[in-house]
Amino acid sequence: MSLKKNIIVLFLLIFIISSCKAIDRKIDNLSLEEEKNLSRLLGKQQIELINEFGKPDGVIHNDDGKILIFTTKKYNITCERKFEIDQNKMVVGFTSKGCF
Question: Are 30 and 100 in contact (CB under 8 A)?
């Protein structure tokens, strides 16, 4: 009986590990897609960013310009996108956290 339990536990562990790897690959692919999507906004005017994402949820002003913050919630996970805007109102950088 103990040998059967060990075999069952071993198969369950293998299944769980392979499932986790599949989820990691999917998250990595979605993160790359998110980065590709946001990269197309680099060099665009601030107004184009606002036309796509709507009114920002927050604005941080700094010496070089400002950072526009957009947040959404999906599957109870908060997605936060920050776009750096220079003094010419151009998108010059971005970060994305929790977005997939």
Answer: yes
* Rounded Cα distance, 33 and 45, in Å: 22
Q: Where do we find the tokens 């993160």?
A: 31
Please count the CA atoms within 13 angstroms of the CA of 70 that sit on its side-chain side.
16
Residue 62, burial from CB neighbour count under 10 angstroms (0-12, 13-18, 19+): exposed
Q: Residue 80: which residues within 8 A CB-CB, separation 6 or more?
A: 69, 70, 71, 96, 97, 98, 99
The string of pLDDT tens digits covering residues 37-86 is 888 999 999 999 999 999 999 999 988 899 999 998 888 888 899 999 99
